[in-house]
Amino acid sequence: MKNNQPVSTEKVYFWNLLGNLAFAGSSVLFTLIVTRMTSPMEADSFSLAYGIAAILVVVGMFQVRSYQGTDVLFRHSFTSYSIARCLSLLLMMAIFFPYLFVSGIDLHESSKIAIIGLYVLFRMCEAISDLFQGLFQRHERLDIAGKSMTIRYSFSTILLLAFLLITKSLTQSLLYLVVLNFIFVFCYDYVKSKEFETIDFSVKNLKRDLFDAITILKNCIPLFISGFLLAYISGKINPKINTLLLSKLPSDVLAQTSSFLSLLFSFSVPLGTMIFSSLALWNMNASWLIFSIIGVIALLLSIEKKRMR
């Protein structure tokens, strides 16, 4: 059943921004909660899990969201997008242990592997939810996607804190969190998606939809490569920043500085989106001009810094 209820641009903008802020805030708070309430060994394992999951979730999403959200001519069915997401999630799971092995992680450390695996499953929920959010975006209902993100990330942060207080175990807390996130995605995202389009895995059209899904993934390869490289580079740079902080800053200000930088980096994406989206609504040419000027200035500063060394 189609949901043709008109929604104001302000409402769509508000919920989309709030959802992105909830995502950014949860990233910071997750790390802060785990660091403060678990042992150093578990905190280190979670930090490792955070970086690995950030890379693997790019494989799970395969950057299809941008392609799906802009498919306003409905060249591909939602069933095809769903099959494409199933394929990318299978790839994400298939490379999990090989990626850990290549990264030099001891596969016999069961507690560490459990924490990494559970957090990867938590991010997999994000990849599944992203499929439905792309559907909402295609039907110009990003407000629903924003509500989903706001509720899921806000409650996930609160529940992680509550579970750690009750169980005193990071592994159990992540397990409960994963189960509840899967339930939420099914009860909210999936149920809401049926108001727009349905998923049809009938044998009659399965072969056609499968080839269509493969076509979608092929078209998204350039987007996937850029997204994967960005996530990989970020995963390599962050440990270097942490090492620099540890070596240069006194212990009494280290935690505050690290938390502030994490908060700054996490909020830079939604803040930049908000600023340039507002500029684009006012004047698209001015938005591109300011973006280009900032990019050129950043490039010149980087070159100048390199020459000084």
Keywords:
309 residues; mainly alpha
What does this structure look like?
The protein has 309 residues and is mostly helical. It contains 12 helices and no strands. Helix 2 (40-61) packs parallel to helix 6 (110-138), helix 4 (78-94) packs across helix 9 and helix 6 packs antiparallel against helix 7 (142-167). The longest helix is centred in the last third of the chain and has 32 residues, at 251-282. The protein is globular. The mean pLDDT is 83.
Outline of this structure?
This protein has 309 residues and is mainly α. It is built from twelve helices and no strands.
Q: How many β-strand runs?
A: 0
**Residues in helices, as a percent range:** over 70%
Order of helices and strands: HHHHHHHHHHHH
Measured by DSSP, the beta-strand proportion falls in under 5%
How many H/I helices?
Answer: 12
Oligomeric state of shown chains: single chain
- Tertiary shape: globular
Low-pLDDT regions: none
N→C terminal distance: 63 Å
- How can the largest sheet be summarized? none
List the helices and strands and how they pair.
Layout: H1 9-37, H2 40-61, H3 64-69, H4 78-94, H5 96-102, H6 110-138, H7 142-167, H8 170-193, H9 203-219, H10 221-248, H11 251-282, H12 284-308
Helix pairs in contact: 1-7, 1-11, 2-4, 2-6, 2-10, 4-6, 4-9, 6-7, 6-8, 7-8, 11-12
